[in-house]
Amino acid sequence: MWQKLFMTMFIVLSFVSVSIAKDVTIGLEWDANVETNLAGYGAYVGDAAGGPYVAFADILKGTQEVWWTYDAVLGTSVIKYFVVDAYNDEGLRSGYSNEVFWVYDMLPICTATAFAATLAGDDVTFTWTQLDIERVKEWKLYVKEEAAEFAELALIEYTGQAGPQYSATETMSVPEDTKKTFIFSLVTFTENGVFSENSTEVSITINKIKPVPVYNLRIKVKVD
Length: 224
Prior knowledge:
There is one protein chain. By secondary structure, the chain is mainly beta. It folds into two domains: 7-105, Immunoglobulin-like; 113-207, Immunoglobulin-like (Sandwich), CATH 2.60.40. Helix content is 0%, strand content 52%. It is built from no helices and 14 strands. It has strands at 7-12, 20-30, 38-46, 53-60, 65-73, 77-88, 100-105, 113-120, 123-129, 136-145, 151-157, 166-171, 179-190, 202-207. It has a four-stranded antiparallel beta sheet, with no helix packed on it. Residues 1-5 and 11-20 have low confidence and may be disordered.
């Protein structure tokens, strides 16, 4: 009597450029069968729930893991369904395991809008709005000074609390007797590493240059 197979899935993603993401590797693992005449397992993938499925691997007994690789292209979205069966020395096969699925979502993500910055002392509070929020994993905040290149300043994780506006606060340390202008931009990321275009740039100036001393102080007397 074959036992029912139960399967879990894990994913490794390796991105090579903005336009193409290759080597999206799906890992499947399951509990071992206990039959003494077990010979191995078969792994299958399909494009619809419940099949039909296509075999992609034959796994000898003693291993409860298999990998399946998919070439991923930005701008597409698919769902893949996976099952595993077991077979014995006589070639008899079990029924399929439970079905697991992987959602491959590489569609473009919306850019954050209404990006703004407010200065209070050395603290800069950023606010923005975000469409497509259900696909957002995090935002990355970038900063530069004048003609320099943008550099990552902070990673802001999406907490799952959807709202009309989002915010974060960062401290910009500026030495005394110094004036600096910072330019900021925000980029939105999905779980699969797809990222948006840069948001509109905003700038703030922190001026710690003290006024020059007051000279030639005089007294004026007015008598009514």
